[in-house]
Write a structure and sequence with these properties.
four-stranded parallel beta sheet; alpha/beta; four-stranded mixed beta sheet; 5 helices; extended; 2 domains; FAD/NAD(P)-binding domain
C-alpha cells in the first residue's frame, strides 16, 4: 500500500499539485439520509434472499433487497453463479430494487413488530420502511465454533480465514455488525 501512496504523491507533485491541500483534514463528510417504503425488505442477497425477494415481487409486492457486500450471491455464488445472476436479473428487470454495499444496522421495531430496517453505506444512511422484513443474512460460516473442522480448509467456510482476517483482501463480519 505504501508503494501505491508514494506513486500518487509522486504523480501529484509532477503535476504541480499543492500537496498541503490534499493533507488538510476535511472533517467528517455528512451522509445523506434516504427514506424509502416498500411492501417487503429483504436483507442478504445470497440464494435465499434472492429467491425470497423474487417470490415476493412475483406476488405483487414492492421489494427492496439489500446486500452488505459489493457483489451478490454470498456462499451460493461459489456453487451456482449462473443461478444467482439469473435470479438477480429477473428481480431487477421486473421492478425489484437492489442495493449492494449497504449494510443493515438495525431492525426498526414499533409496538413489538418489525416494521423496517436501518442501513448504511459510505454515502448514505437508509431507512427502509416495510410491514414485512426477511432476514437472509447467511449461515454460520462466520462462527468458527459451529463450522466442522474438515470444512475450515475451504476459502469461504470458517471464521479464521474468510471472515476475521485479511487473507482475501478484506475484513468483514456476517450479518448485522
Amino acid at each position: 500500500m505504501q508503494g501505491f501512496n508514494d506513486a500518487i504523491v509522486d504523480a501529484l507533485t509532477q503535476a504541480g499539485a499543492n500537496l498541503d491541500n490534499f493533507k488538510a483534514s476535511q472533517g467528517e463528510v455528512a451522509k445523506e439520509a434516504v427514506e424509502e417504503s416498500y411492501d417487503v425488505v429483504v436483507v442478504g442477497a445470497g440464494l435465499a434472499g434472492l429467491s425470497s425477494a423474487l417470490t415476493a415481487l412475483q406476488n405483487g409486492k414492492s421489494v427492496v433487497l439489500i446486500e452488505k457486500m459489493s457483489v451478490i450471491g454470498g456462499a451460493s455464488a461459489m456453487a451456482g453463479a449462473g443461478v444467482v445472476s439469473s435470479l438477480s436479473k429477473t428481480f431487477t428487470d421486473n421492478g425489484g430494487v437492489l442495493y449492494t454495499s449497504v449494510k443493515a444496522d438495525e431492525l426498526i421495531v414499533n409496538e413489538g413488530k418489525v416494521v423496517g430496517v436501518k442501513a448504511s453505506s459510505t454515502a448514505n444512511d437508509y431507512t427502509f420502511n416495510a410491514p414485512r422484513v426477511i432476514l437472509a443474512t447467511g449461515g454460520y460460516g462466520a462462527n468458527n465454533e459451529l463450522v466442522a473442522d474438515q470444512y475450515k480448509a475451504f476459502v469461504y467456510a470458517g471464521a479464521e480465514c474468510y471472515w476475521r482476517c485479511d487473507c482475501n483482501g478484506r475484513t468483514t463480519k456476517c450479518g448485522f455488525n
